[in-house]
Amino acid sequence: MPDDGPRSTGDREDAAELTESLSDRLVSAVKDDAAVSRRAVLGGLGLAGASAVGLSGGATASGDHDGAESPHGRAGVVGEFQSADFDPHEFLRTFETGTVKMEDGQRVREFELDASLREIEIAPGVTFPAWTYDGQVPGPTLRAVEGELVRVRFSNGQDHPHTIHPHLKNVDPQMDGIPQNGPGVIEQGERFVYEWQARPAGCHFYHCHSMPLKEHIHRGLYGAMIIDPDPERVRQNPRDYVNYHGPMTDDLRAELVEEAELRNHEYRADEVDEMVMVMNGFDTNFDGDNEVYAANTRAFAYGVGSTDAENGEWEAGETVKPIQIRRDQRQRVYLINAIEFDLVNSFHTHSQFFDYYDHGTTLKPTHKTIDTIMQCQAQRGIVELDYSDHQPGLYMFHAHQSEFAELGWMSFFEVRA
Amino acid sequence: MTDERTDGGATVARGGMPFGLPTWVGAVAPLVLLAVVVAGFVFLNPFAGLVTGGALPDVTVTHASLPNDETVVLHVTNNGPDPVTISQVLVNDAYWDFTLYAGGEATNTLAPMESGRVVVPYHWTPGWDLHTGLVLSDGTTFTHTIPAPQVSPGLTGELLGLLAVVGLFVGVIPVALGMLWYPVMQGMSDRSLHAILLFAVGVLAFLAFDAGFEAFELAAEVPGAFEGNLLVVLGILGALLLVQAVSAWNASGDVNPLGIAYLVALSIGLHNLAEGLAIGSSVALGRVSLGAFLVVGFMIHNVTEGPAVVAPVADGERPALWHFVALGAIAGAPVILGGWIGSIAFSPTLGALFLAIGVGAILQVNWEIGTMVRRRGSLGTPTNVLAFLVGLAVMYATDLLVAL
Q1: Most Cβ neighbours (<10 Å): which of A133, A146, A283, B226?
Q2: A77–B88: do the CB atoms touch at under 8 Å?
């Protein structure tokens, strides 16, 4: 087996013994299922050589398969990711902040994006011909500050026409990034400069809006766009950031401003462990249903490398490993649902309840103390987690559509002291 | 122009080689030239422009075996022209651990035409369908459903003994009982005897249709690389022509009744082998309840095979008794052998091939019996035709008793 090395865990001798007994059991018992009905019988004939075929190879089954420690089998993918084109662990905490400049008193933040075709690895050994922004799926996480002008220089290097459609409050219809408006679709080899208002503050989404829409999205043209709240604006218009109708006290105002500072990468966001999770899926056989699900493209990439279900031992793999988080730090997940074909996706934490800010447009949670949140397609929000009173160790989180979880959207936090 | 020639004046004498070359050179030359052309294609690749993306992967799961309730074994074949990599395996829409064994080792690729076993350690529930899927490196999926899975019991002496007893009752005893009509048949008029022979032809024709349909049904499960339908056609025609050649070589001149009896016994034996196979594999799958009714059904069904075997020798001298024992054994005992094989292993490819061979053998035997009847009288009399129809009808009716 070329690719199962890292899954070995625990006592190699035990594993070898078990696999040997497993293969022995197989060799002694392999028996083939006869699809012969009664009808087969009349008129027919038998099979002098069939036994040779049925049993061939059985005796050579070797015990070098380290992963099969549990007699009940091990769920999940087999092997490690083989290509290094994309690292979900790196993507998780990477924010593109572009370049900032002033134009006539207006802050302008500039990005460059291109569209290209790229073969990406979505499960160990399984590739997918993706349409990508900047050669990656999800596209780069763009981050700006409320009130800025976001300028994206887009060039299309792919065969098909593409656009970038932002989920922002955009008051210029020319910049909506749809085929029916403004420049329409951007053809191969063409360029266009999109300019968008960075508002409202929150956790947002951009994607290609070419037709057929379902295909352009599920092939990989989407990404996260985070607009940090401006603490000064929050101080002046606190009611824009909270669904609350009581008196606006100084304390509440100060609280909201502080929260805005903790959200803003130019203020104190670095005090929080910020992560981006784009929930996505891939239809590898074009049947209108996803074969692979994930948070950030790679199935089970935030899983444990190998595990022994008998005694709960686990070991991180090279590419398949839990997300390490510090117990004394607040965690914030920018969560976006980019799934196609399925109506909803979800995020569920084990042994943990979190605060949720739908679309991230408020500075007070829209849901408090929940452990499961559902998002429809393109819905997103901010998840704030606190593991300070948890014991160190593994804490699972995943889509609570069990099918999605077992097809790849299954992950772990490794809480460290 | 004085010659009235229509060949344009060609004068090459028949049998002469051009340029005075020896004949063997003429025989070999086309092959040599073919080799040159093939080499040219291999090295120069003149049709490179026609290569557009290559062939699609084609993998077949021929069948699954379930050695115990913790293991699923999928038997897979790569039918395509390119190697395939099985990157992941799905069981009931979940990725699951697996190992692919092919060519005697654990691997993850299958060469063209190569077969292998995907062993999945999965704790399944008897009776609950298993939907399995292979995910290739390019994301292509191939699925296989195992309906109502049951553990195949291990191969024990007890099971073999049981199958032997079942085979005895289902195959050997009914055929032997049927052969006991021999003395009655001996005293019959030619007209009645011919009717009996045509009845036997009807019985065999029914078996040929039944096995033929089953062979093509099984052929659908044969991996594409082995061309299941054509394999069945080859099996039918091959058996027909081979048996015909042997019988024509033996019986130079008159038809040999004892020879025909042996051919009938052999054909029925081949049929009974498949019957045993189906019983054996059903038992192995835990899918059969061999109740008294079913066994009685088999016996009634198979008792008609007895007279078919001995009918060819009813007219004239009685062969030695040991011939009867041999005929009975050849016709009936294969049920036991088939049961054993069926309980151990089964492959759709070989199953379809053997069914086809049986069909071919039956067709030839029917031809032979028809020839015999025609030489001694008339084949197409109303009695004979009706007897043939009765043979078909009796087989159909008794067939309804034995749905496994």
Answers
A1: A133
A2: yes
Among B65, B94, B404, beta carbon nearest to A32 = B65
Domain A273-416 has CATH 2.60.40.420: yes
Distance from CA of A291 to the nearest CA of B (A): 8
Contact by Cβ (8 Å): B341, A41? no
Write the single-letter amino acid at B362: I
**Cα B184-B189-B193 angle, rounded to 5 deg:** 70
**Residue B219 corresponds to which tokens in the numbers above?**
């052929």
DSSP string, B71-104: EEEEEEEE-SSS-EEEEEEEETTEEE--EEEETT
Q: Side chain identity at B187, as an amino acid letter?
A: G
Nearest residue, CB atoms, A125 vs list B87, B117, B209: B87
Any idea which fold A88-263 has?
Immunoglobulin-like (2.60.40)
How confident is residue A43, by pLDDT bands cut at 50, 70 and 90? very low
Residue A376 assigned ligand-binding role = no
CA distance B162 to B156: 10
Q: Is the pLDDT of residue A10 over 70?
A: no
Q: Which residues 113-132 of A are in CB contact (within 8 Å) with B?
A: 122-128
Average pLDDT value for residue range A311-319: 85
Q: What H or E segment, with its residue span, contains residue A369? A: strand A367-370
| B187–chain A nearest CA distance, Å | 30
Report yes or no: B359 at the A interface, CB cutoff 8 Å: yes
pTM to 2 decimals?
0.76
Query: Can you tell me the distance from the alpha carbon of B225 to that of B205, in angstroms, rounded to the nearest whole number?
Result: 31
C-alpha B121/C-alpha A71 separation (Å) is 7
Strand A331-337 to strand A273-282: parallel, antiparallel, or no bridges (unpaired)? parallel
Cβ of B341 within 8 Å of Cβ of A76? The answer is no
Q: How many CA atoms lie within 13 A of B190 on its CB side?
A: 10
For the stretch A163-207, pLDDT in tens is 999 999 989 999 999 999 899 999 999 999 999 999 999 999 999
User: Per the CB < 8 Å rule, is B97 touching A76?
Assistant: yes
In this structure, the strands spanning A191-197 and A149-156 are antiparallel
H helix or E strand, kind and range, residue B174: helix B173-179
Across A171-248, the runs of DSSP E, i.e. the strands, are 191-197, 202-207, 222-228
Q: What are phi and psi of B85, to 5 degrees?
A: -110, 120
Residues of chain A with CATH 2.60.40.420: 88-263, 273-416
**Inter-chain touch B209–A43, beta carbons under 8 Å:** yes
- A-chain residues near B274 (CB < 8 A): 36, 40-47
Determine contact: A1 vs chain B, CB below 8 A: yes
Q: Locate the DSSP E strands across A40-104.
A: 99-103
Sign of CA dihedral A234, A237, A243, A248: positive
Residues 6+ apart with CB under 8 A from A91: A136, A138, A141, A276, A296
Tell me A98's DSSP state: -
